[in-house]
Design a protein that fits this description.
The chain has 2 helices and 22 strands. It is mainly β. It has a single domain (about 5-265), classed as Distorted Sandwich (Beta-galactosidase, Chain A, domain 5). The strands form 4 sheets. The protein has a 9-stranded antiparallel beta sheet, with no helix packed on it. A hairpin with a 4-residue loop joins strand 13 (about 165) and strand 14 (about 170-175). It is globular and about 45 Å long. The protein starts with a strand and ends with a strand. The structure holds 6-O-phosphono-beta-D-glucopyranose (BG6). 6-O-phosphono-beta-D-glucopyranose (BG6) binds near residues 47, 69, 186, 216 and 243. Its EC number is 5.1.3.15. Pfam families: Aldose_epim. One of its GO terms (molecular function) is glucose-6-phosphate 1-epimerase activity. This is Putative glucose-6-phosphate 1-epimerase.
């Protein structure tokens, strides 16, 4: 796999061209901010288990004609540019354009760009441009895996009173208090318009989203954890996914010539 490594005064990062997949980010002298399965595949055609899979143009099984989470996470992106903005900040731009293969799966002409800014924060901007002559609809996510000291120590703040779709039961419910993990969790939170915090035993991670009002929270827990590919049976103890999304009712319609940016900043 072709990998881009970034090292500047404030942080380091690793990004695979396949899927524009960021699979490592850490501030200098600090623990990584992204979880990566120690038995992840690094193989053509298989999504890396961990980091930030780019789910596009469909989140989950929203479009039954597409693979789960769309095709972008296993597609080969092109490296457009790497810019040293200053000694603390590096910007990497990766792009994916339509091809005969994507048109067969999804009949629209598009340009997709992931702009990654590596500094004391990790910023990801996923820009979808419609270069077709017909409108298209997308659902998508920056499917970030965050490491936690232990899943029982993790809580998510910022979602209190938010409506959510429980993907396990298809029920529409309302969050009460912090999100904690005592069983499998697979939820699409809606109407999220402010920062979400992942509070762990010894640090708090901030997640700020723009161009999005949905946040997916996922942990497979014991049984599903055993069925997941490319992760150890007990890996569910070590991470939680908090995904910056346009999912469920937060889908986006993009007109010809228009674009949409989904932006996530984590630190
Ligand atoms: C989450 C979904 O976003 O991704 C879960 O809500 C899913 O239902 C998980 O299991 C992992 O998906 P995948 O395709 O990477 O195994």
């Amino acid at each position: 796999m072709v990998i881009i490594e970034v090292n500047n005064n404030s942080a380091s990062a690793k990004i695979a061209l396949q899927g524009a997949h960021i699979f490592h980010y850490a501030r200098k002298g600090e623990k990584p901010l992204l979880w990566l399965s120690d038995i992840s595949d690094f193989q053509d055609g298989k999504a890396i288990r961990g980091g930030v899979p780019v789910c596009w143009p469909s989140f989950g099984m929203n479009n039954p004609n597409l693979p789960q989470h769309g095709f972008a996470r296993t597609a080969l992106f092109e490296h457009q540019s790497t810019k040293e903005i200053d000694a603390n900040t590096t910007e990497v731009i990766l792009t994916l354009s339509y091809s005969q293969e994507t048109l067969t799966l999804w009949p629209y002409k598009f340009e997709l760009e992931l702009k990654v800014t590596v500094s004391d924060k990790l910023t990801m901007e996923l820009i979808t441009k419609n270069i077709d002559d017909k409108v298209f609809k997308i659902t998508q996510a920056l499917h970030t895996y965050f490491p936690v000291s232990h899943i029982s120590d993790a809580k998510i703040k910022g979602l209190n009173n938010k409506p959510y779709l429980d993907a396990l039961t298809s029920e529409q419910l309302t969050q009460s208090g912090d999100v904690i993990f005592e069983e499998e969790v697979d939820r699409v939170y809606q109407e999220v318009n402010s920062e979400v915090l992942l509070v762990d035993r010894d640090r708090t991670i901030h997640i700020q989203n723009e161009g999005s009002s949905s946040v997916v929270v996922w942990n497979p827990w014991i049984e599903k954890g055993k069925r997941m590919s490319a992760m150890r049976d007990d890996a569910y103890n070590d991470f939680v996914c908090i995904e910056s999304a346009n999912a469920f009712e937060d889908f986006r319609l993009i007109e010809p010539g228009e674009s949409h940016t989904l932006k996530a900043t984590i630190y």
